Amino acid sequence: MTTSREQRAAAGETQDATAARLEQENAQLRHAVHSHATADQAIGVLVATHRLPPPTGFEVLREVSQHTNIKLHTVAETLIAWALGQPLPQPVGQALDAAVQRRSSPE
């Protein structure tokens, strides 16, 4: 039979595990919100610079990510930096030009 002390210790371990799990979920949610905001800003860059509708801007962002094998949020950060005056890395620039060209050409 377990003692009251053992029960309190087990409950404390359960609470610690629950708190750790919730902290991890919270960190993941914060990261997701930040990544989503970054992607939205990059889509805004594409909308403004290439006159694309927002859904097409997201398609372009996703395609550049896939063709360069760079995570979408990293491509988004790169595009935002480019809009602020930093150079666009060649692989991203080439994939971006190709993706925009495909969306702009009549089908």
Structure overview:
The protein is mainly α. The protein has one domain (4-104). The chain contains four helices and no strands. Helix 2 (54-68) crosses helix 4. It is rod-shaped and about 75 Å long. The N and C termini lie far apart (76 Å). The mean pLDDT is 88.
Count the domains.
1
Query: What is the strand content?
Result: under 5%
What's the total number of strands?
Answer: 0
Roughly how many Å is the radius of gyration? 22 Å
Largest sheet: none
Structural class: mainly alpha
Q: What are the key terms here?
A:
107 residues; 83% helix
Brief overview:
This protein has one domain. It is built from 4 helices and no strands. The protein has helices at 4-50, 54-68, 72-83, 90-104.
List the topology elements:
Elements: H1 4-50, H2 54-68, H3 72-83, H4 90-104
Helix pairs in contact: 1-2, 1-3, 2-3, 2-4
